[in-house]
Task: structure prediction
Amino acid sequence: MLIKVNGQDKDVPEGTSILSLLDAFKLTPDKVAVELNRRLVKTALYGNALKSGDQVEIVTFVGGG
Amino acid sequence: MDVLRIGKFEVTNRLFVGTGKYATYELMQQALAASACQVVTVAVRRERLVDKEGRSLLDFLDLGKYIILPNTAGCFTADDAIRVSLLGRDLLEKQGNKGAGWVKLEVLGDKKTLLPDPVGTLEATKELVKEGFAVLAYTSDDPRSAVRIKEAGAASVMPAGSPIGSGQGILNPLNISLCLELLKENDRGFPVIVDAGVGTASDVTIAMELGADGVLLNTGIAHAKDPVKMATAMRHALDAGRLAYQSGRIPKKRYATASSPFEGVISHIPGE
Result:
């Protein structure tokens, strides 16, 4: 199925979750925050399966003023 | 102890320092240490999904030492600023940092001037207060805008000295002092932090002498030729301004007043 991660199209297997995405990108759940379709997702829900067309944003902190 | 209270947050150092634009993370660490700041600002951005070998800011900030103040820089609508605020809070909660729950709100008008959009800022402030945030709202030095943001529930109002990163200092000291006067009327403890435009140490001192409760800066340190030395200068400048403000400066007078007495002079005084 096709989803969007950080603005880029990704073809991922059915059943893919935020958790499995983070794992694939070698990211630790504690060091990122995640949005699904423009809404914040709490860490406890990262295991839920994504749906085709979902838009995921994975963010962290960078230097800023 | 000279404590600054912003909502439930308490700090003893009134210099808030940004983490952007340093040549290296190591230089940033040294500059932050030299500034003696307790609060550092950060931005929320997409993870790079390739090149994860790249180093992360979080690995270079002592989260036990610093209170992280996430900003909403780069947001041009209230809606986006709210999304970014929620993401930043979530990340800080996970990191167990004390900064979870406050936000430096920026809703900007355009990329060229980076001047704040007053309507968007007001809308976002109201929503974020409902979400339980202590909102530190970046605004222009317009005193009426500042008052409206306070009325919307902001925990602190942060008028700009001059445009972000411009290094032009405090362009309109009268407006900053009017902001301070109106915001602190019958509410002396209401925190006002001058944010943006600081180019050198004297700008920090001027802001503090006017009665600001703190100063937030980034580029003035990060892009100085020697950021660590400039961070030290900023620290002393803040103390100088704060102490001068608390001391109560003398009024400005048109003519001279001699420090040495005229009584007993042996000289001829012209006109007498």
In short: The CA atoms of residues 3 and 10 of chain A lie 5 Å apart. Chain A has a mean pLDDT of 96. Chain A touches chain B through 26 residues (CB under 8 Å).
